[in-house]
Amino acid sequence: MTVPRIRAALYAAFTLALAMLGGTLHAAARDDVIVAIQLEPPNLDPTSGAAGAIDSVLYSNVFEGLTRFAADGSVVPGLAERWDISDDGLVYTFHLRDGVTFHDGTALDGEDVKFSLDRARSEDSTNAQKGLFAPIETVSVIDPLTVEVTLSRPTGNFLFDLAWGDAVIVAPESIATIATAPVGTGAFVFDDWRQGDRIDLVRNPDYWGETARLQRATFRFISDPRAAFAAMMAGDIDAFVGFPAPENLPQFEADPRFQVLVGTTEGETILAMNNGQPPFDDVRVRQAVVHAIDRQAIIDGAMFGLGTPIGTHFAPHNPAYVDLIALSGHDPERSRELLAEAGFPDGFTTTLKLPPPSYARRGGEIIASQLRAVGIDTEIENQEWAQWLESTFNGKNFGLTIVSHTEPMDIGIYANPDYYFQYGDPDFIALMDRLNETTDPEARTALLREAQEMIARDYVNAFLFELAIPTVAKVGLSGLWRDQPTQAVDLTAVGWDR
């Protein structure tokens, strides 16, 4: 009876070894990933929507521009492999890559580039960053792989602007369905969108560049911080980019199953004030709001210490940044004095519209308390993202709101009087025009610093902090961006090391 028992034991050991080997081989061969982000895109057209969540899913993955942002924030060639710039800085000649096809099999050519740029700058354009294309005077197709863009004035930031998600190249044939079935040139092809749950992408086998390491990528949308923590701990997702519960990061850092990446973003998080609506059309009221705010208390209370205080709408890691925090320090007594001077000795009541991100919902409660201490009562309204875009951003139906502007170096939005906070001071507009026409790096830096100071001294908004980007991922997943030079979850180099 002893021999059968030994055989059984050996068989069991052999079976276990095979199972372990099979598991190892499976892990090594894995070519799919499930990535979670907090916000779901309202549509899938980055050229007509303001939501950063569109770029989070589609930038580089599905859509590409003539230029693009690399992980370090530098601007590198995209669909244009190179370009020439005339001596007067007015003519850009883009040489397109040969052999690029859209996901529907049609070839990318100069006519697609002309269509995309003309559509973005047209009078009826709904592009959220239409101002990026304002300097363009004409777009001419020289031949199928050569496009000439003539500007009305020198624009030192033109190649940078073309790297934005709003400037990606789209095919005319796909416009009718682009909002729900996007067709691009990227390393991944759109597969499916189950609204409220996920978007699936699959590898593009005909990609012009380096083939993606992943065969399939799924984006899931989890807005609730507790649900995000539970999903990550249960292994239901492989990574969460922009993890919304920073208080849980130490637990993930101590768990050998996970890696935690904390990077910087271009996200200026602000308490925006409706400058076109009383009482915020009075600079004294805006200044009173600013002095009522304790930035560090918000960073500590809402973000658990993640975030860098800012005193203007500019990223601290940019060499042109000016530290202007001293202009807007926490000073409740000065806040009350300013309110009295503006005719509100007993304060006033306004609305505070809060979109879903944690920095807004959690930060909003803290800010409401700080404002209440100086006599400003807020009626808080929590809004879903689509509602915030429609009512607050597009409809300008708000007194105060909190949002993080994740577009790269976007101080130019303050020159647009129709933008949701309705500033558009003529002197600032003139300053931005000078900046756009300036190509000398030192002169541009001086103008950028002047612009930062102008909006800080006008107390256009309450500038809170530069948003950090925490990412929690399973060990073995590599290629994720640590920093976000633009709001994107670029999966083109992501894959499993084991």
Describe the structure.
The chain is an alpha+beta fold and 498 residues long. The chain has 3 domains: 32-39 and 180-263 and 469-496, Periplasmic binding protein-like II (D-Maltodextrin-Binding Protein, domain 2, 3-Layer(aba) Sandwich); 65-171, Dipeptide-binding Protein, domain 1; 265-468, Dipeptide-binding Protein, Domain 3 (Dipeptide-binding Protein, domain 3). 30% of the residues lie in helices and 23% in strands. The protein has 13 helices and 19 strands. The chain has helices at 2-29, 52-58, 110-121, 158-161, 225-234, 249-253, 283-292, 295-303, 332-341, 358-372, 385-394, 426-436, 441-457; strands spanning 32-37, 67-69, 75-77, 80-85, 91-96, 136-143, 146-151, 188-194, 198-203, 216-221, 239-241, 258-273, 308-309, 348-354, 376-382, 400-405, 462-474, 477-478, 495-496. Strands 1, 8, 9, 10, 11, 12, 13, 14, 15, 16 and 17 form an 11-stranded mixed sheet that branches. Strand 8 and strand 9 form a beta hairpin. The longest helix is centred in the N-terminal third of the chain and has 28 residues, at 2-29. It is globular, with a radius of gyration of 25 Å. The model is unreliable at 1-27 (pLDDT under 50).
